[in-house]
Amino acid sequence: MKFGFGVSPTVSNITTQTAAILSGGGGSPVVSPAPFSDNVVRHYNFSDDANLVLSGSTIVSANDLSGNGVSATGSGVVRTASQINGLQAAVFDVGDYFTFSDTSLPVTDASRTLAMVVRPTRNDSGGMGIFGYGTFTGNQQFTIAIKDTTGYWFSWGFSHDNVSSTAYTANTNYRVILTYDSATNAITMKVNGTNIISTTTTDYNTVLNTGVIGNPVNVDWVGGYDFGGAIGETIIYDRSLSTAEQTTLDSYLSTGWSF
């Protein structure tokens, strides 16, 4: 059994609250807590049944590995083997999603970081909302998404968007890290280790309402942006991560998912 970053399997550094023992789906990611775990406020990993409540292959809920005890509730999401480099993941079709409480997550203009492992599996000119939280109205949400028409990765704030010039490719594995630093107004998005957004923005006004994985923050929106594909892991931090810390986090995701 492997451990990430040279961590030994002791009670003090591998706990049931912060460690995912990832053994399902035809492969084994590294057993490791997320880096900078003191600042992790939500953490879901779908690669091991031990982290999930199942009804057959349908995921009823996913345990929060951050230690905050905020489970994500599934709607139509299926646990499927060999989705991301031979590893089990949560699979979403149109209208499938998880919701989770966003109570205590960073609000208004506060710093924050979102990270995920994802494999979009369809070409969709209607765009896809993948992972975020807040309220689905002007400048009140914070979401990792894929833009309609262009297929570009972007930070979707709903009337406060930051769009890259990098398009996704269906059936490709991605590690995505989105960071906002309120002290410098810097927003960055890193995809598979490469910065694709690096700019400044002001006046975020994120208003808490709900957290969503695999859909827009408004799961009943008729405007499209449903996600199709597989998601392996999602993490939220209550602060911005520095460039060096983002590299460490990207290495954690890369090691755990073997790409």
Short description:
With 259 residues, the protein is mainly beta. 6% of the residues lie in helices and 41% in strands.
What characteristics describe this protein?
259 residues; mainly beta; Jelly Rolls; 9-stranded antiparallel beta sheet; 8-stranded antiparallel beta sheet; 19 strands
Structure overview:
By secondary structure, the chain is mainly beta. It has one domain (37-257): Sandwich (Jelly Rolls). Helices cover 6% and strands 41% of the residues. The protein contains 1 helix and 19 strands. The protein has one helix at 243-257, and strands spanning 19-20, 32-33, 40-45, 52-55, 58-62, 72-75, 78-84, 87-92, 97-100, 112-120, 128-134, 141-146, 152-156, 162-167, 174-181, 186-191, 194-200, 210-213, 229-237. The radius of gyration is 17 Å and the shape is globular.
**Count of distinct strands:** 19
Can you summarize the main beta sheet?
A: 9 strands, antiparallel
Give the uncertain stretches in residue-range form: 1-28
Average of per-residue pLDDT values: 86
Overall body shape: globular
| Structural Rg | 17 Å
Q: Would you tell me the structural class of the helices and strands? A: mainly beta
Following the backbone from N to C, one meets helices and strands in this order, namely: EEEEEEEEEEEEEEEEEEEH
Q: How does CATH name the architecture?
A: Sandwich
The amount of beta strand, in percent, is: 35-45%
**Structural domains: how many:** 1
Number of helices in the DSSP assignment: 1
How far is the N terminus from the C terminus? Answer: 19 Å
Order of strands across the biggest sheet?
A: 4-5-6-9-18-11-12-13-14
Helix content: under 10%
CATH class: Mainly Beta
CATH topology: Jelly Rolls
